[in-house]
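Internal ticket - ligand job 434, calcium ion:
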Amino acid sequence: MNMYDIILKKRQGQTLDREEIDYFVTGFTQGDIPDYQASAFMMALFFQKMNKEETVYLTEAMMNSGDILDLSEIKGIKVDKHSTGGVGDTTTLVLGPMVAAAGAPVAKMSGRGLGHTGGTIDKLESFPGFSVEMTKEEFIQHVNDIQLAVSAQTGDLAPADKKLYALRDVTATVDNMSLIAGSIMSKKLAAGADAIVLDVKTGSGAFMKELDDSFALAKTMVDIGNGMGRDTIAVISNMDQPLGRAVGNSLEVKEAIETLQGKGPEDLYELCLSLGTQMLILAKIAQDEGEARERLQEVIHNGLALKKFKEFITRQGGNSQLVDNPQLLPTAKNIIELKATQNGYVQHIEADEVGMSALELGAGRQTKESILDLSVGIELIKKVGDEIQIGETIAKIHSNEEKKAQKAMERLLKAYIFSQEKIAPPRLIYGIVT
Ligand code: URA
Ligand code: CA
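stdout (structure tokens):
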């Protein structure tokens, strides 16, 4: 077997067998197959696509490329949640404490990664002292004690994906259904969850811009998960505009706290309820959607979810007093307001442009070495469907540097599209795939 023949076979649109896919994943991970062959192979896959069996082989090979975490010492059914990625997606910070407070163990392995804003770990580091460094034993202990822990990746999970994702990112081969499904599911399966809830985003700020493609991606991942013996469900949710109002690390932490207090943005809260409902059902904490939803609403209203969040921050070394005093979280020096110059309605907010605007401010990483400014970001005061009047504030830019703020402002202006006609607020959940 050699890589040339495998590339050619795929280029010609033929189906690869398990041995050929294993050969590529193993060889590439070990450094025996060079980047130029892997790049050509990714492009061949992009155009010729993989069928269902090939996608399963790819996922399994990537899952088996590194450690497979055994979390069986954690009591209860561990349900992991994963989003396919969006702008200003603060759900993990809200969902973790909600679901834990409702009684299901949440053992979250998270990353920093590249992106418009930092990952969950970066956001949590808005709390001075907060640490995600822990041994596997400590991780298990935390979850058994308080039902919730967020750890940096322990061990070497799916190294094939790490390497392949970096290559796809610079060769315009990210947005292929099989490659995304394999990438996400190999990591989830290696991370030891018993069950998985996927938040598959659809719209301008998502990898999958079309609804049909989002459903197909969801179905592919759900079938892979179920096929590997893990109960898997996907929720298809809107990423045509950013979720919630805050895009930026400490701003999103503040938003998460408000949501846990029951006064956060409607869409963020609703998405957390929808995802949390599926998590509680898979964890066998609730029998049906009605019961699950009620439990989640209850832990918001009686303050238990917020209490859980504080307990979790304290347990991982952070100062949880900041939860009650969020003004002490990292705060930017300047707030610049973007004002409406016409009357009308917000028709659309291009999620990617808002993300790029936050990135300009320093909220996210452009390269692995970038240092984040946790205090900066964007607050969307007006969202799709809202009425606006001349002079009203549409959005706020939180910044520390004049020049960056100007660039961010230019991008943010491009992100907003207005209309004279009344617009219905967009749908948030498009469906559930089982
Ligand atoms: N998220 C991932 O982890 N991998 C992809 O390929 C796309 C989104
Ligand atoms: Ca948000």
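Auto-summary: The CA atoms of residues 31 and 385 lie 51 Å apart. The chain has three domains: 3-48, 79-155+168-324, 330-419.
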